[in-house]
Amino acid sequence: DAGVIQSPRHEVTEMGQEVTLRCKPISGHDYLFWYRQTMMRGLELLIYFNNNVPIDDSGMPEDRFSAKMPNASFSTLKIQPSEPRDSAVYFCASMRGAYNEQFFGPGTRLTVL
Amino acid sequence: AQSVSQHNHHVILSEAASLELGCNYSYGGTVNLFWYVQYPGQHLQLLLKYFSGDPLVKGIKGFEAEFIKSKFSFNLRKPSVQWSDTAEYFCAVNPINQGGKLIFGQGTELSVKP
Q1: How many angstroms separate the CA of residue B95 from the nearest CA in chain A?
Q2: Span A10-22, mean pLDDT?
């Protein structure tokens, strides 16, 4: 299995631009998580899905952030408009079953200038 | 609020020294517990996990952790560290009434001097 795939690996954009991060979970996994990692705040859960349905989005910082999971093999995290404080590494993780190990992707390093 | 505390932000050891990283959580119900490791420039990988049973769990690369329910702790240990253990270590808690949600500690950066 290829593991969790994220794209792009690096993204540099200017403030105000729309950013879309993509994630392909491991086949057969029914949970998908989006995390953000920063030096100041550590690893934060933004949102997670079960069977493509958003379950908990309480970690989404504000309305500029949105996430979708149109099918079991694809999810996006969108930031519109982006701001410099959104600069972070964004990780996607997937899991089979509710109480199990989460498998993390390599992350997308986002820099907003 | 539920939280996970890792007491050491940065630990520096020489090779062959013993390691113990502290982790405490604040949640009164049943939890699953994890330690993840992030090597420089890489993604998080599972070191070990505790769901139930023997509170002393063994993971990969010689790591082990002990769950002490009365202390709400899940400390990570390794008898003899190697330079290749240089990484950031994260403790994480999954309250079982919250689906798969993981609450992470702030992480402990471990630097091992050769």
Answers
A1: 9
A2: 97
